[in-house]
Amino acid sequence: MLGLFLYFYFMKIDDLHQLFLDCSAVSTDTRKVNDNNMFFALSGENFNGNKFAQDALDKGAKYAIIDDPDFKASDNTILVENSLKTLQELATYHRTYLGTKIISLTGSNGKTTTKELINTVLSKKYNTTATIGNLNNHIGVPLTLLSMTKDTEIGIVEMGANHKKEIAFLCDIAKPDFGYITNFGKAHLEGFGGIEGVIEGKSELYHYLTQNDKHVFLNADDSIQIEKLNTYVKKFGFSQTNPEYFKIEFLDANPFVSYKSEAITIQSNLIGAYNFTNLCAATIIGKYFNIDLLDIKDAIERYTPNNNRSQIIKRDNTTIIMDAYNANPSSMEVALQNLSKQDAENKTAILGDMFELGTSAKSEHQNIADLATSLAIDTIILVGENFYKAEIKSPIVKQYKTFESFKDNYTPIIDSYVLIKGSRGMALERVLELI
Predict the structure, then answer these.
(1) Which of 37, 168, 180, 434 has its CA 20 to 30 A from that of 157?
(2) Mean pLDDT on 65-75
């Protein structure tokens, strides 16, 4: 057994890949292990994944990858120097082995919605594999790549980041052939060190693509994107005004976005003008991959958002925009502006704190509170420590330090058009239990 164990310790990545090909999937969570999985024991500051290797094998995993020899369980335990690094290296090897076309996308807002739209459109013609949910970090990207098979013709890989060099690192893992940046906004300011840091960090995708002579998709009405890609040749973009790019015309967003291209009108199920560019991205990527515009129209019009991202929920005479998956100053601003433009007699905004803003937290929460009170919104409810500290002199605003305090003082909302938006940690979807 010792000899076999030592062999596994010095196993090359191509040999490990051969074992992976005989497995059904990769897992990093024993609660989700299925038969014939390859389990990677990942560890963090507060947990040691190696402790669960035997549990994974007992639940049907074919192999368990560990990086601590004290937890060798059987001949099916494979010791490596670093489980996480091995997972990433295996993903890159698998991506190269398949040779699948990879589209990567990042940005401050709209990544997941755009990824879902692109996948919906491309699925009209191709066998696709896309990031599940928002598994878009140093673990999620490898898992997405390893979920691809020889049948996958196009992979759509979402990339998230909260500090510089992270997108560059993810590009080295995924090695994308194409890329798109949704926008540059005030997200993760604490990690990026300000909006200029956000632009620099997200643009690492552009840097990878241009340095490797790959293709770039862009919003040609975004001055930052145009500036960054001014002289680059391999680009394909959309614009409302620039004749050099594929023309798409915004029509309306009351509440759902509709737009026109090549005399064809597309009526989406996405609310808010801020979703227009997300729809445009899916449209031009579909066009680039030779999907007929009528098929793109069909795909877009069949797509319905879920998972607390711009969902429309009806409760008697109350219409709810459930957008509680995440929030930052940029996305909060456009969501409030969208609410104010809705054709409704009574409009309510329930807003939760925005996280990861660092030293900008106080000013950004004050800015959003001031914006909300300046718009055509009838009732504003602010929940969270930062919003509680905002200085507001308006009778339409109610402030609560915690969700529990809001819940205890909740006044029924009826016959209203309601926006619910806050960072993930605020879990504002709990408001639905009250309405």
Answers:
(1) 37
(2) 86
